[in-house]
Amino acid sequence: MASIKPPGLPAFEIRVAAEHDIPALTALIIPTFAHYHIEQMLGNHPSAIEAASARHLRAHREHIAETGEASGIKCMALDPNSGEEVMAACAYWYFFPHPRSQESMDPSPNYLLSADWVPEENGEREKMRRCLQPVLTTRRKWVQGRGHAILMFMATEPAWRRQGAATAVVRWGLERCRELGIPAFLEASEEGAPVYKGLGFEVVDTVVMEVEGERAEFPVMMWWPPGTEEWEKKPLGE
To answer: Residue ranges of the domains in the chain?
Structure first.
């Protein structure tokens, strides 16, 4: 738990989400990313929150089983109107303090990227897996063989945007990475990339996804712990 108050902005408290918090995180995350075509095709849309929550809960449990680390992070604040505590932002920070084996990274590094729930009819599941493959390949390329953290699905309540909530969540995760001495990895949106860059992330690659003729590019960014040599800032084995 950590309290963070940027100058001139509201005070936020970062907490690790418990299992019973996952539906609330899902309810904020799904609408935030619903405009992406692939999210819609994966069934991640506001009309199917309950099913999406079950998937997020499974990913939460699997990560704890593998690493002992919870993944959900929530940023809490006091509503200035009601005085009640509310969730201003959330994210999934997947920490892997130690290098992962090839077996643990295949076929998918995270259940939310497996498409296991997509119906097999008409090859839909296989099509989704092909669409997601560039993401999985790029992640393995940059994090395989070293301890690392992956930041996924950063989301902020509309009323709390541009007030430092998302920044507080990222800084919390980077402080944990600093303590563990591991790099942080993410795929950024076009809007998010400048924010991450301001927090010390560097663009190292690009992920290109194609879904039914729709092409999307996402910058791949990494934050390196203090003391990282330049020769280390590349995929291991190169």
So the answer is: 2-232
Q: How far apart are CA 49 and CA 61, in angstroms?
A: 18
For domain 2-232, give the CATH superfamily.
Gcn5-related N-acetyltransferase (GNAT) (3.40.630.30)
7: Cβ–Cβ under 8 A, 6 or more apart, which residues? none
Q: Which of 1, 10, 29, 31 is nearest to 167 (CA)?
A: 10
The pLDDT value given to residue 81: 85
- State the chain's maximal CA–CA distance in angstroms: 55
- Which tokens hold the place of 226? 């203090």
DSSP of 199-238, one letter per residue?
TT-EEEEEEEEEETTEEEEEEEEEE--TT--GGGSS-TT-
Share of the chain above pLDDT 70, in %: 92
104, 62 contact by CB (below 8 A) = no
* Percent of the chain clearing pLDDT 90 (strictly above): 76
Nearest C-alpha neighbor of 182 from the set 142, 218, 154: 142
* pTM, two decimal places: 0.91
Taking Cα atoms as reference points, which of 160, 163, 164, 154 lies closest to residue 221? 154
